[in-house]
Design a protein that fits this description.
- By secondary structure, the protein is α+β, with helices and mostly antiparallel strands.
- The chain has three domains: 83 residues, Rossmann fold, CATH 3.40.50.20; 139 residues, ATP-grasp fold, B domain (D-amino Acid Aminotransferase, Chain A, domain 1, 2-Layer Sandwich); 63 residues, ATP-grasp fold, A domain (Dna Ligase, domain 1, 2-Layer Sandwich), CATH 3.30.1490.20.
- The protein contains ten helices and 13 strands.
- It is globular and about 65 Å long.
């Protein structure tokens, strides 16, 4: 009888996305093949407390933590110190992918198209007229390090602008202000380490003003159209840009890249999610299922990729002697 792989599913955490993480973990656990895996649930409280010793005896860890303290490289760093294989991008890719400001700067430098943006660290650095002049209206204000549309506001006037800044600074010490891009919201899932593959693209058709937290996880009126109704040339372009984004940002294992597709055919990268949602309505597993990889096989492959990276890094020298 083949020995089962002891896998720890890590979820919760000190983040505004704590509840989303609980939903994702539930679906990951239900999707793992019980004949292959011995599963240990590891919940981190909202105050960030947990016992690192619970990882002892595990073969691999599957972090399903969204947002700060889970998706930003901090947990990945701890797992590396514990010499533990884990699913998903490592420290650098996680940290870079979490910070929307850094993400956009690196992508821009690599020649990958992104929208115009302004980054601030305090309210006094910007005023409504300057933002309006540089980015136009409406515009979006977001915490630089947050996902699931938490703290995000669409701004049309000065009063909304002031309120949006206050809201965004509740969640981060750095805030990004972005131009509004009129276009379709297209998403593409990635899978792999050095050589990555892209899923078929899907489209989010939100029934709200934008794809908010409620639209993603509460109000099921938003529609996910998979595959997206786009021509083959555009689909290939999005897949190629997704892979390039994944590689440029030093990501591994899994990610989801979100795009804007303008009427003139121009494609812009909006952001990357290095631990995308795994809820029962999340795009990442749905995109792969539509691409021919059901959830159990997808989870198997993610675990395999974690072991592959761990074995490769294990052979690196840690001493000059």
């Amino acid at each position: 009888m083949t020995k089962k792989i002891k896998i720890g599913v890590l979820f919760g955490g000190k983040s505004a996305e704590h509840e989303v993480s609980l939903q994702s973990a539930k679906n990951v656990i239900s999707g793992l093949d019980k004949n292959k895996y011995e599963i240990k649930s590891i919940k981190i409280n909202k105050d960030g407390k947990f016992n690192p010793n619970v990882t002892k005896g595990l073969d691999v860890v599957f972090p399903v933590m969204h947002g700060p303290f889970g998706e930003d490289g901090s947990m990945q760093g701890l797992l590396k110190l514990l010499n533990m294989p884990f699913v998903g991008p490592s420290v650098l890719g996680s940290a870079v992918g979490m910070d929307k400001d850094v993400t956009k700067r690196i992508l821009r430098d690599a020649g990958i198209p992104v929208g115009k943006f302004i980054t601030i660290r305090k309210v006094s650095e910007i005023n409504f007229q300057k933002a309006k002049r540089e980015l136009g209206l409406p515009l979006f204000i977001k915490p630089a390090n947050m996902g699931s549309s938490v703290g995000v506001s669409k701004v049309r006037n000065e009063n909304e602008f002031k309120k949006a800044l206050v809201e965004a600074f509740k969640y981060d010490t750095k805030v990004i202000i972005e131009e509004n891009i009129a276009g379709r919201e297209i998403e593409c899932a990635l899978l792999g380490n050095d050589v990555s593959m892209a899923s078929i693209p899907g489209e989010i058709i939100a029934n709200q003003d934008f794809y908010s937290y409620d639209a993603k996880y509460i109000d099921t009126g938003s529609v996910a159209e998979i595959p997206a109704k786009i021509d083959k040339k555009t689909s290939k372009k999005i897949q190629e840009l997704a892979i390039k984004t994944f590689q440029v940002l030093n990501c591994e294992g899994l990610s989801r890249v979100d795009f804007f597709l303008k009427k003139n055919g121009e494609v812009l990268v909006n952001e990357i999610n290095t631990i995308p949602g795994f809820t029962n309505i999340s795009m990442y597993p749905k995109l792969w299922e539509a691409s021919g990889i059901p959830v159990p096989k997808l989870l198997d492959r993610l675990v395999e990729l974690a072991f592959e990276r761990f074995e490769r890094e294990k052979n690196l020298k840690t001493s000059v002697k």
